[in-house]
Amino acid sequence: MAATKKISDHFEKSLTKLNDLVEKMENDQLSLEDSLKYFEEGIALIQQCQKTLTHAEQKIRILTEKNGKLIIENAKSD
User: Residue 25: how many CB atoms within 10 A of its CB?
Assistant: First the structure.
């Protein structure tokens, strides 16, 4: 469970940093060099987040499959 929390915290920090980079690129007068540096960093963060999401999706699939068939249960409402 601690590993999941660590991954979640890292994911959230990456999203926050990505948001900060976007804001800087939209609001600041950056040189071309700085813009490219931020863009490159943003692409790396996006790839990292996508990898984390793909891993989570695979884990969910494993947890929700039974005998190779996807099990989807509807939540019961009272």
Answer: 14
Strands (E), the chain: 65-66, 69-70
Structure tokens at 33: 């060099």
Model confidence band, residue 62 (pLDDT cutoffs 50, 70, 90): confident
Q: What angle separates helix 32-64 from helix 2-27, to the nearest 10 degrees?
A: 150
Name the pTM for this structure. Answer: 0.72
Within 13 Å, how many C-alpha atoms sit on residue 77's CB side?
Answer: 0
Look up residue 39 and give its amino acid: F
Name every residue whose Cβ is closer than 8 Å to that of residue 45 and which is 6 or more positions away in sequence: 14, 15, 17, 18, 21
H/E run at residue 31: none
